[in-house]
Amino acid sequence: MLLRWNRLACDNERARGRGSGSYADGRSSSAMATARWTPDELLARLAELGVETETLNHPPAPTCDEHALYVGHLGAGQAKQLFLRGSGGEFFLVSCLVDTEVNLKQLSTRLGFKASKPLRLSSYEVMSEQLGVLPGSVTPFALVNAGPGVRLLLDARFKAQQKLLFHPLTNERTTVISCAGLVVFLTSLGRTVEWVDFSDASPLQRTEHT
Question: Distance between CA atoms of 33 and 16, rounded to whole angstroms?
Answer without folding.
Answer: 6
